[in-house]
Amino acid sequence: MMTFLADGHATSPQGWRAAVAACGIKYANRDDLALLVSDYPATAAAVFTTNAVKAAPVRYDMALMAQGTALRAVVINAGNANACTGADGDAAAVAMAQAVEQTLGLPPHSTFVMSTGTIGVPMPIEKIVRGIAVAAQRLSPEHGLAAARAIMTTDTRPKHCAVTVTLSGGHVITIGGMAKGAGMIHPNMATMLAVVTTDATVPRPVLDQAMRQALEVSFNSISIDGDTSTNDTLLVMANGASNAPPITDLDTPDGAAFCAGLTAVCQHLAHAIVRDGEGATRFVTITVRGAVNDAEAKLAAMTIARSPLVKTALFGADPNWGRVLCAIGYSGATVDPDRVVLSFGGMRVLENGLPLPFDEQAAHQLLDVAEITIDADLGLGEGKATVWTCDFSYDYVRINAEYRT
């Protein structure tokens, strides 16, 4: 059994504490640093941006994960991406980790580092180190929501959730998390930072397997604008504080239950990112079925999701099926135009490659809502995929035109 917790967050699982501090990195009068600490060594799994231009913290964390050591803490700053900052940026990432370890008396190489914000600006590392010292004095399980707020950049609201999962024998584990992201969103990875915590005991290979399964149907199934950033990171940590029996095989009832809980948290956070897309007015669910396989279904769905012409039509609630069909046609998926069926909000507008007579005003009304659906059946096989996106509004252009100014 799985249950969502009201206002759940990254410190909802047992043995996790958080704190925040205002460093003045870019934003005035707000917290811009979050510190998340486990009371026990945690196994960890992570995936990172596929962008060839990787920020200093990403490079640091990739090397850290290659060592395979247990983690005890994550430090995250907002306002500065520490990307394209050269050797000084690399030194700043190291300094952030070491400041946490030395301040809290943690083992070397047990702190994960994340940064988000403007690219190409030197890191004010002295401010951040001072902020770490302040945050270290404030650690509490009650500060999970504050941590989710502190990592925001162009986000308009914090993104967090947690679930409890009942395992065999009545043992209960909790999985929680937080994420940030509102623009520059596209797999693989979707552009964002996300941290997921649990008090379950999960060996690293099993945790990595579960994370990748959840990732494919969550963060790697969303797109806001087709851009993949320099800092994208998903980190999952398990500290075993629940004392539930270890989850050592995903092909068991307990393993399947853990996977379902992890997927639920990741999907909730991924959907929250799309709902908070820069300037977004609509949350869009796109399902493609009838493809020759699941991979081609996802290819077609993601192509629809990132099409600027589709997304601007959705902003105007325009049932322009031609733009959707066009995107499917150039997606690279196997397509027979004479078999395609399209529906907007449940209204069929195209069948076997030919337009159907439909009420334009009724179709407009179906699309002129906060949550809409696009369904496409390619009529070729059993492949199916669902992805999520948002529209492109005037505000998306304004926000990104003024991002540095």
Q: How helix-rich are the residues, as a percent range? A: 25-40%
Number of strands: 16
Contiguous low-pLDDT stretches (5 residues minimum) are: 184-191
**Residue share in β-strands:** 25-35%
Alpha-carbon Rg, integer: 22 Å
In N-to-C order, the SSE pattern is: EEEHEHEHHEEEHEEHEHHHEEEHEEH
Q: Can you summarize the main beta sheet?
A: 9 strands, mixed
Please describe what this structure looks like.
It contains 11 helices and 16 strands. 33% of the residues lie in helices and 27% in strands. The longest helix is centred in the middle third of the chain and has 23 residues, at 253-275. Helix 1 crosses helix 2 (86-104) and helix 5 (204-216) packs across helix 6 (253-275). It has 405 residues and is α+β, with helices and mostly antiparallel strands.
